[in-house]
Write a structure and sequence with these properties.
Number of helices: 13
Helix content: 25-40%
Structural class: alpha/beta
Radius of gyration: 21 Å
Strand content: 15-25%
Number of strands: 15
Shape: globular
Length: 386
């Protein structure tokens, strides 16, 4: 880094990651910042299926506006890293060498992320410190995924002890957090049920699910109707959003005063499947019961990442209520293989890209010794632009 440049993964058009993503050298490292910004030396980036779909963009609707202009976009919003010397005048919460995790903000013109880069300039409101016991690797698993689970269950629905929850897609990046958080909230008198593929059942149940259902071997709406109509759920979290029948049949297994919460929507891989799913989704959201709508509350909302919510997630991690679930880790140069893994459907938890190894080991017993060793490692890492 002596020449003041860094590497980034960039794309300039929508398409499959292997077709459009390029590793670009000689990108200038920021040398100035706004008063509330800090420069981060990125350690790990967590790939997220939602934003990968925006890169692929089957429908020509959700690619970043900058791609329409042919400008370079840097993918992925979830990261962990170390604070560098470059900080704005109003930044008092963080100092050089602090370990942080966070989320790069998104706006209509940039759905991409900006995380898959060796350095990242970001406002301090979008980062929090990594708990002492947690590695940078594991810290990258939190932010968007954990904040989404927290927002829908704690802020939006106010899930309570003793209630019953069903989580559709319990083995994905949001699902593995949602299962753990639901278990903590509902306690031993509540019930947590989740769907996943058969090979992931043991893992999902080990995270706190009382029952994990193989969605490939069972039609979920029929299975839930058969097994849970006598003891229905208070809350359903649909993370994948690909099965209209799950909501259409929910009166059989969702209490009248319960809620069906849609986090994501899978439009399929063609314009026809997308059009069909859009019509179904609009019906779920807007069709009144007297016109044939489903008599259950349907909620859809994207989660806005805020400092308050990041701090809430930080607290959950510190107290051990939620833990990172890492499927696999790929080196920065091999990020395309990480996307292959993410898209092959076999992932449990997070697929990570290690941008730069900034820690010697994942855990430690003696905090003072670890921090001393960490400081020494940091002093020997990219000195010019710390």
């Amino acid at each position: 880094m002596s020449n003041g440049t860094q590497r980034q993964w960039q794309f300039r058009a929508a398409g499959e990651p292997r077709d459009v993503l390029k590793l670009v050298d000689n990108v200038p490292i920021p040398t100035s910042c706004k008063e509330d910004e800090v420069l981060i030396r990125v350690s790990h980036v967590a790939l997220t299926l939602l934003y990968t779909r925006k890169i692929i963009n089957h429908y020509g609707l959700v690619a970043p506006i900058s791609c329409w202009r042919g400008d370079a976009c840097v993918p992925e919003p979830e990261f962990s890293g170390v604070v560098c010397d470059l900080r704005g005048d109003n930044v008092t919460e963080f100092k050089t060498g602090d370990r942080v995790f966070g989320f790069t903000p998104m706006w209509f013109g940039n759905f991409a992320g900006n995380g898959l880069s060796e350095y990242l300039l970001i406002k301090q409101e979008y980062i929090v410190k990594v708990p002492d016991h947690l590695s940078l690797r594991d810290a990258s698993c939190f932010s968007a995924s954990a904040v989404t689970a927290y927002f829908c269950m704690v802020e939006r629905w106010h899930l309570k002890e003793g209630q019953n929850v069903f989580i559709n897609a319990g083995s994905g990046s949001v699902g593995v957090i949602a299962v753990q958080l639901a278990r903590k909230i509902v306690g031993k008198n509540g019930k947590v049920v989740a769907s996943c593929s058969g090979s992931k059942i043991k893992k999902v149940e080990s995270l706190g699910a009382d029952k994990a259902i193989d969605y490939r071997a069972n039609k979920l709406s029929e299975y839930l109707k058969q097994h849970y109509s006598s003891d229905p759920f208070d809350f359903i979290i649909d993370i994948f959003g690909n099965d209209h029948a799950l909501y259409a049949n929910s009166p059989h297994y969702l209490r009248p005063d319960g809620a069906y919460y849609n986090i994501g929507i899978d439009f399929g891989s063609s314009k026809w499947s997308a059009a069909k799913r859009v019509v179904e989704f609009l019906g779920e959201m807007l069709l009144p019961t007297f016109l044939g709508g489903v008599p259950r509350t349907h909620i859809f909302a994207s989660t806005h990442i805020t400092k308050k919510r990041l701090l809430a997630v930080q607290q959950l991690v510190e107290e051990g209520s939620i833990k990172a679930v890492v499927d696999s880790v790929f080196q920065f140069e091999d990020a395309l293989s990480a996307y292959d893994k993410l898209l092959d459907g076999s992932v449990t938890g997070k697929v990570l890209v290690e941008v730069k190894k900034l820690e010697k080991k994942r855990g430690f017993k003696n905090k003072k010794t670890h921090l001393k060793n960490y400081k020494q490692m940091y002093e020997n890492t990219d000195k010019t632009y710390r």
